[in-house]
Write a structure and sequence with these properties.
Blueprint lengths: L2 H8 L11 H10 L5 H29 L16 E4 L5 E5 L15 H11 L11 H14 L9 H10 L6 H17 L2 H11 L1 E3 L2 E2 L1 H9 L8 H10 L12 H17 L5 H9 L15 H15 L1 H6 L3 E4 L3 H17 L7 E7 L6 E5 L24 H10 L7 E3 L3 E6 L2 E3 L11 E3 H6 L3 H11 L1 H11 L20 H12 L3 E2 L5 E5 L5 E4 L5 E2 L3 H17 L12 E6 L5 E7 L4 E7 L12 H16 L45 E2 L19
Parallel strand pairs: 1-5, 9-19
Antiparallel strand pairs: 1-2, 3-4, 5-13, 6-7, 6-18, 8-11, 9-10, 12-15, 13-14, 16-17, 17-18
Length: 691
């Protein structure tokens, strides 16, 4: 190849002159080689991606740079106390001060504790540098399948970082933050220091922070003396201290302990024979220590709800200011009254009682007493106990009947009827005093808590409709679909029953029970406000008819002892063999429930009834609590004529409600009735509900 040829072929392509005519410029542009369109799109996208990535990276770097300095752990100061106030700003409780944590060095913490925690919480603790890619990958798979929340994958170091510096939220930015902080912690501290910080920091349940407090709470001993079975049980609590507590759920706690031991064996911390021996070892617990909270049942229930909402760490060490709905004056008055009443009636075998009051229009819980001695028993009989309500359930039957068009003046004969109970046996509901009055009005039947007519009504309107009514008003427990439901044989919690009665008082509007009105963080910023959100759950007219009839219970019925000089309505309840006694009553301003009985379900003696025992106490409490609130009346039902009010605590006058008197003589014999099998009284619930 000649040199001339090489120079010609390697010569640069001609460029447009610096100054050319428009025609020459156009001809050059037309003949110039064109770049494919997709290259332009890709170039633009790449530029934007680069700019976006640079911006995101800059933002991430800026955010990470603003995170706390992990060097502050060298001078770490324990959490700030959370304070709980009543509705008037009076202090109820200081939650988790420094006295609840005793810091112990790692050398004093048994190897069994350290190994158990590592086995269940972070098996690769000694192999990662703050974050565990394997754990992150597993968590990523879960996140991709579940969507909104980022879960799992946290190492012990990340958990420590979150506990000390971050919020409990499960979001991607928070996960990135605790990962970054974990890396910094691993860079500044060795594994022993990190493990020591972790074991002294985390929440173990029941007001216990750190392993030393946990050892004292659950086993009444120092952490240095914990055994392998005890260590495994404590490690199992970390995932959910309240859920897996042996004081709350001993079976769940034991299952978690076994899981921890199996993981310890799998990771070669202990041998299989040691697992078997530890699982078989019986553990004893000293019992929970007395709390110093005022209104302890209310406070403990409130803390449980707050922990579900914010997480244990935030509640117990976040310096929150919680403004509750409790009225401390009414609470302490109710505590004194209930305790005195139980003490005065121990001779008739009454050992326990509970009270709760709620404002019907707002749902604010003003008092809550779950038992007579929190130090002896922390079981909350208002929120946790399932008890038969007896005749206190009858208003749901009558409300259903009124909504189906049955009039309170309708005359029904209370002749006893026998219903097949299976196995060739018959169930015959009986009235409390075993007397029968013949034909009486539906109104009078409710006032006198007539059992026979209540069963006839539920048979007429349908059991399922009554169950639907109860659930609409706020009963959440399972109700057995049989005729004995009319007599209150299905168990409910007192809180549910009181909340449902609030709908009666609020003219068909339901508001969920509210424990807290406002929460502030340690800096005084409001982080939560709870306002009443009433919603209509039942039509006004049948409810007004029911309330009109229930006022008669107080003025001249089984609840006459509850009359205290202002418009009020309510219902007594006494279960079979006098195992439970109730009075639930309300004014337009306040609804209150009183229950007495025994935890072992033993019988009260002496013919104890809700009307004789609970109603008088209810009247004294309501009179004192509402002393500064002007009386108000319930709305009148449009379907009933205006009548003169019944005289309290006296027999009815024929000039007031002539339909209340007996219209026919009592029956001479018992009628037997065949029913569809789905509404037959079940053998286990075909008991007599009295009063």
């Amino acid at each position: 190849m000649s040199n001339e040829f090489k120079r010609e072929t390697l010569a640069p392509k001609p460029q447009p002159p610096s100054a050319v005519s428009r025609r020459e410029a156009a001809r050059y542009k037309k003949n110039a080689p064109r770049q494919p369109w997709y290259w332009t799109v890709l170039s633009f996208a790449s530029s934007m991606l680069a700019v976006g990535s640079l911006g995101a990276a800059s933002g991430l770097i800026f955010s990470l740079a603003r995170l706390p300095d992990v060097g502050s752990l060298q001078s770490y100061v324990p959490f700030e106390t959370t304070k709980i106030f009543d509705c008037r700003g009076r202090l109820i409780a200081n939650v988790h001060g420094e006295e609840n944590r005793i810091v112990v060095p790692l050398r004093d913490i048994p190897q069994s504790v350290q190994q158990a925690v590592i086995a269940i919480e972070d098996e690769r603790f000694f192999h990662h540098r703050g974050i565990d890619p394997r754990g992150i990958f597993r968590a990523l798979l879960i996140n991709l399948s579940e969507g909104d929340h980022f879960q799992g994958g946290s190492t012990l170091t990340q958990q420590l970082a979150k506990s000390l510096f971050l919020s409990p939220s499960r979001t991607l930015p928070r996960k990135l933050a605790d990962a970054w902080l974990a890396i910094q912690i691993e860079h500044r501290f060795n594994k022993s220091q990190i493990l020591e910080l972790y074991l002294n920091q985390v929440f173990w349940g029941h007001n216990s922070f750190g392993i030393e407090a946990a050892a004292q709470t659950y086993f009444g001993k120092s952490a240095t003396k914990l055994t392998l079975p005890e260590s495994a049980l404590l490690a199992g609590l970390l995932k959910g201290p309240e859920m897996y507590s042996p004081y709350h759920n001993p079976n769940l706690a034991k299952r978690r302990q076994k899981l921890v031991l199996q993981l310890m064996s799998r990771q070669n911390f202990i041998s299989p024979p040691e697992v078997e021996t530890a699982v078989k070892t019986a553990l004893t617990y000293p019992g929970q220590q007395n709390h110093v909270y005022r209104a302890p049942y209310f406070t403990s229930y409130l803390l449980q709800r707050l922990t579900e909402r914010f997480g244990a760490d935030q509640v117990m060490r976040g310096g929150l200011r919680v403004f509750s709905t409790l009225d401390l004056s009414a609470q302490e008055l109710a505590e004194k009254m209930l305790t005195r009443m139980i003490k005065d009636n121990k001779h008739i075998n009454i050992t326990q009682g509970a009270m709760v009051s709620i404002e019907p229009k707002t749902g604010y819980v003003r008092t809550l007493i779950g038992g007579i001695d929190y130090g002896t028993s922390k079981f909350n009989r208002i929120t946790q106990a399932l008890r038969q309500p007896g005749s206190a359930f009858k208003p749901f039957v009558y409300l259903t009947a009124f909504s189906e068009g049955i009039s309170p003046s309708k005359v029904v004969n209370d002749a006893p009827v026998s219903y097949p109970a299976g196995n060739g046996e018959w169930w015959t509901p009986q009235n409390y005093d075993h007397d029968y009055y013949g034909s009486i009005s539906v109104r009078r039947a409710l006032e006198k808590s007539n059992n026979v007519i209540a069963v006839k009504l539920i048979q007429q309107v349908g059991v399922e409709k009554v169950i639907e009514t109860a659930h609409r008003l706020g009963i959440t427990s399972k109700l057995s679909p049989n005729l004995s439901l009319a007599l209150g044989t299905s168990e409910v919690t007192p809180l549910d029953l009181t909340s449902a009665y609030c709908v009666f008082a609020a003219d068909g509007m339901r508001t969920e029970p509210i424990l807290v009105t406002k929460i502030e963080d340690r800096a005084g910023r409001i982080i939560e406000i709870n306002k009443p959100k009433p919603r209509r759950v039942f039509p006004e007219e049948p409810l007004r008819v029911l309330v009109d009839c229930m006022q008669g219970v107080v003025t001249r019925g089984t609840g006459a002892a509850a009359y205290f000089g202002r418009p009020a309505a309510g219902k007594t309840g006494t279960t079979s063999d006098h195992r439970d006694a109730w009075f639930i009553g309300f004014t337009p301003d306040l609804c209150a429930t009183i229950w007495v009985g025994n935890d072992n379900n033993s019988k009260m003696v002496g013919g104890t009834t809700g009307g004789a025992l609970c109603a008088p106490l209810w009247a004294r409490f309501m009179r004192a609590t509402l002393a500064d609130i002007p009386p108000s009346s319930f709305p009148r039902p449009k379907s009933l004529p205006i009548e003169a009010p019944a005289k309290p605590k006296t027999s009815p006058s024929p000039t007031l409600r002539p339909d209340d008197w007996l219209l026919t003589p009592p029956p001479a014999k018992v009628e037997k009735k065949v029913l569809p099998p789905e509404i037959l009284p079940q053998e286990s619930t075909a008991t007599e509900s009295n009063e």
